[in-house]
Specification:
By secondary structure, the protein is α+β, with helices and mostly antiparallel strands. Helices cover 44% and strands 17% of the residues.
C-alpha cells in the first residue's frame, strides 16, 4: 500500500520493498484511490491547520531512563525493549500509568515494541506470566487496545475475540487480566486528530467515547489493520533508518490512521456493556482504596464502606473482573510489593524478615510459604539475586 505512494527520498528498491504492505494489485489501487481522496480533502481545507501532515516544531524527548529506544529526529521514536522486572516494564508505557500484580510462578519476561509518530503512538506487548494490570490512561488522548493472537488478556473480565478492538475513553481506569503468556496491542491518538480523520475518510467524525466500547470490525478490516500494525512494529526494529525519514513516517502514519478509522466504524460487540461498566467501576474504586490504605493492611469491611457496596457485591465484581476474591487480590498486591523491595534491596544490609514486617506480614514462616507458592522461589532467593548479578 505504501509502495503506491511516491516517496522521493525512498528511491531505492529496498526501501520500496520494505514499504510494500498490501499483497494484491487490487488492494493497492483501492487504497491508493482512498488515500488520494484523503489527501485531497486535507489540501482543500476539510481539516484544520493542525491536520495529519503538519510537522510539530517541538517534539517530546521522552523519559530519561528509556535509552534502549532509539530516537533519531523529530518524526518518530521507535525500538524494542526487553524486561525481566515487572516494575521496569510497567514504567515504559509513556503517559499511561500501569501497575502489574504478578500471579504466576517463574521468571517474568516481557518485550515491548514502541513506535511513536507525530500523531500516533503504538505498543506491541508480549508477556510471559499470569498477571493483573491496573491501567490509567491519559486524559488528553484516545486509546485503543486489542488482542494479538490466541493468548489474549481479558478486558474488564470479558474475553475478547481475536479481532476485537476496545475503544477506550480518555482518562479511563481499567483492569486487564492475563492467565498466562499473552500478546496485546495499545495505540494512542489525540481526540481531535481522530475526529478529523473520521471526517476526512468516512465523512463522519469519530467521537471520543464517554465509556469504553468493544468493536468487532469485518475480517478484511481486521486483517489489514493487524498486518499494518505488525509490519510497522517490524520496521521499528529492522528498518530504523528508513522509518526515521519524515516522508516515510508520514506515509506510515497515514496508512495506520486509515485502517484504524475503518475499524472504528464497526458495530459494537459488547452485549453486556452497561453491566460490565458498573462492575468495573466498583473494582476501580476498590483499587483506589487499596492504594490509599495498603501500608496498613485495610480491613475488608472498612473497604466495602469506602467503595460504597456490600461485601457480597464486591466479591462478585472482583471475581468477574479480577478472577479472584478481594482478599486474595490484596494479598497478591502486598506480596508483589514485598518482591519488588527484595529485588532492589542490598543483601548485605537488608533482611527478609524486615521486608516482611514492612509489608504487614507479621508471621515470617507463613510469609515465606505463601511467597514460594505464588512466585516459585523463596524470598531469600529473590534477595540474594542482587549479589549474584
Amino acid at each position: 500500500m505504501l509502495a503506491s505512494l511516491s516517496l522521493s527520498a525512498a528511491n531505492t528498491v529496498g526501501a520500496e520493498k520494505s514499504l510494500s504492505f498490501m499483497s494484491s494489485t487490487h488492494d493497492v489501487e483501492r487504497h491508493h484511490k482512498s488515500s488520494r481522496k484523503f489527501r485531497t480533502r486535507i489540501d482543500k481545507g476539510t481539516q484544520p491547520s493542525n491536520c495529519l501532515f503538519r510537522r510539530d516544531p517541538e517534539h517530546s524527548k521522552g523519559r530519561k531512563h528509556q535509552s534502549p529506544v532509539r530516537r533519531e529526529g523529530p518524526m518518530s521514536e521507535r525500538g524494542t525493549q526487553r524486561f525481566d522486572d515487572p516494575d521496569d516494564y510497567a514504567a515504559a508505557f509513556g503517559d499511561a500509568r500501569v501497575n502489574l500484580t504478578i500471579m504466576g510462578a517463574g521468571d517474568f519476561s516481557a518485550r515491548l515494541t514502541r513506535l511513536k509518530l507525530q500523531h500516533l503512538e503504538m505498543y506491541w506487548c508480549r508477556e510471559s506470566l499470569s498477571r493483573i494490570a491496573y491501567i490509567s490512561l491519559p486524559s488528553e488522548r484516545v486509546a485503543l487496545s486489542f488482542p494479538i493472537g490466541g493468548a489474549s488478556p481479558l478486558f474488564g473480565g470479558s474475553a475478547l475475540r481475536n479481532g476485537d478492538i476496545v475503544l477506550h475513553s480518555p482518562a479511563e481506569r481499567m483492569h486487564q487480566r492475563a492467565n498466562g503468556v499473552c500478546q496485546w496491542g495499545l495505540m494512542f491518538f489525540s481526540a481531535k486528530q481522530l475526529a478529523n480523520c473520521g471526517e476526512a475518510l468516512i465523512r463522519q467524525p469519530i467521537a471520543s467515547p464517554r465509556l469504553s466500547r468493544v468493536l468487532r470490525p469485518t475480517r478484511a478490516q481486521t486483517l489489514q489493520f493487524r498486518s499494518l500494525f505488525k509490519r510497522a512494529c517490524h520496521l521499528a526494529d529492522t528498518e530504523r533508518n528508513l522509518i526515521g525519514r519524515p516522508e516515510v513516517a508520514r506515509a506510515l502514519e497515514q496508512d495506520m490512521l486509515h485502517a484504524v478509522v475503518q475499524c472504528l466504524a464497526a458495530d459494537d460487540a459488547d452485549d453486556v456493556a452497561k453491566t460490565r461498566h458498573r462492575h468495573t467501576a466498583v473494582v476501580v474504586r476498590f483499587e483506589k482504596g487499596l492504594t490509599k490504605h495498603i501500608d496498613r493492611k485495610p480491613n475488608m469491611r472498612a473497604m466495602c464502606t469506602e467503595v460504597g457496596v456490600a461485601e457480597r457485591t464486591l466479591r462478585m465484581c472482583c471475581a468477574e473482573v479480577l478472577g479472584i476474591s478481594p482478599t486474595r487480590y490484596l494479598l497478591l498486591r502486598r506480596l508483589n510489593r514485598a518482591r519488588a523491595t527484595l529485588r532492589r534491596a542490598d543483601p548485605s544490609t537488608a533482611t527478609v524478615a524486615e521486608v516482611a514486617r514492612n509489608n504487614q506480614f507479621l508471621e515470617f514462616g507463613r510469609f515465606a510459604v505463601t511467597y514460594r507458592s505464588v512466585f516459585g522461589e523463596s524470598p531469600s532467593t529473590t534477595l540474594q539475586r542482587n549479589s549474584s548479578e
